[in-house]
């Protein structure tokens, strides 16, 4: 396997793993909504991080789609988790 093919596959696999990492917030969102509140700092910082990486990947001259798609779901799942950490 040549280097560019390896890097392409690595980017796809890493993107899938990153998406699964943020989808895993669903369990915490569920717990938060049922009164088992978690600390809000980690999902907030993750949301900011995902937002910045998504902006970077989308707006650079040669868009970096693996980085974008790996972080874009984290924007929504992280901030949703953050917002449910409080007993409004």
TrEMBL record:
Gene3D superfamilies: 1.20.1280.290. One of its GO terms (cellular component) is membrane. Keywords: Membrane, Transmembrane, Transmembrane helix. The chain crosses the membrane at residues 6-25, 37-59, 65-86. Pfam families: MtN3_slv. This is SemiSWEET family transporter. It comes from Limosilactobacillus vaginalis.
């Amino acid at each position: 396997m040549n280097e560019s093919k390896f890097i392409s596959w690595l980017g796809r696999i890493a993107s899938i793993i990153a998406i699964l990492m943020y989808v895993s917030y669903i369990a915490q969102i569920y717990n938060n909504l049922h009164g088992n509140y978690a600390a809000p700092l980690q999902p907030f910082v993750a949301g900011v991080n995902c937002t910045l990486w998504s902006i970077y990947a989308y707006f650079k001259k040669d868009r970096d789609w693996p980085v974008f798609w790996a972080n874009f779901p984290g924007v929504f799942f992280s901030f949703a988790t953050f917002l449910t950490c409080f007993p409004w």
